């Protein structure tokens, strides 16, 4: 019977023109054996781990504009110089600085209990004694937006969300609105404070901090994120009916203008006219953990890969490694870099700022003449389990301003299944980094740099994304 079915299926396939005449796929693009050797050797890399371990141990948390971020810049210069990079330097700029203070919350009634929360960057302060008010509970940003002002004015607003776990991290953009714009909208509508459900996928009692922004003319209000279990507890209490009153104590402060900066290092190329290959991540971190995932791993991965190219000889294009400052508080380092280097010719820009899990996909935004580079990348990255995506490359806060100038982009996408369990929490520490996954990242970036930095094709400007 099985033979009969197989014969019948074969006959059907041969009789179907679309199956019988299917064109076989083209052969894969060839890559030089040296690239394969560099990629495979990078699977034994120890440099990236040493950078992550050193930065998180010897500096720790690195809030932008603080003394800790300054120590991180000095540490970075010493480490990059010791690794053999050229033209290592700090490019400083000034920025307004926000610092965390005391933070606590408790349900006063109907069921008194303490809650766990963290202030959002740029939050205003309550008095030292705190404020107590009724909570207006909204299960989503949409429910909040559709509510009348009378349900908001004079209250502490709560906005819930249930961010989904996705590989590409797409839930962050959709559900992050509660943090990105919720506090400013609440302030404009007369709320005295706001608490949100943390923008995260975990169920640990660790709140996720992050920046919020109050536009000019909008007076900031106290703003914080509850841990996911505490947010769900608040929702259960509210569902029982009757008013819920909360006491909130937040004492952050703006401390004026201070210095931040970008740390830059280079692997000089043999052809200055071919353009710069820009890679990196951000040196600063939030102040709750030690920033191992976000983003010590990213700067370590890109620097380790660039060193491997440097040790293998002189590439055609200069590779510029940038450890950007002040990313977490608004991408100030990326904006400063683009302004300072707008007159230089950048061939491509790429950043690593999505943790340390394995890379699963790459995407490009290349001019037509340079598309053979993407074909070679597909061949070079496939043995690492990395597929070619169909989207347009060009993701990253720090490289965003440079991409807007028309620079081509290459993205190496890490898996985000677990990233938002740790993102912006006290749990962002060294033991969340998987050494094997870190090495796979270094191998992928090494292969990418070996292909792109030495590509014979011109890489001209593209239409900005």
UniProtKB/TrEMBL annotation:
It comes from the Bacteria. GO terms for biological process: proteolysis. Its main location: endoplasmic reticulum. One of its GO terms (molecular function) is metal ion binding. SUPFAM superfamilies: Zn-dependent exopeptidases (SSF53187). Residues 1-20 form the signal peptide. Residues 262-445 form the Peptidase M28 domain. Keywords: Carboxypeptidase, Endoplasmic reticulum, Glycoprotein, Golgi apparatus, Hydrolase, Lysosome, Metal-binding, Metalloprotease, Protease, Secreted, Signal, Zinc, Zymogen. Coiled coil: none annotated. Pfam families: Peptidase_M28. One of its GO terms (cellular component) is lysosome. This is Carboxypeptidase Q.
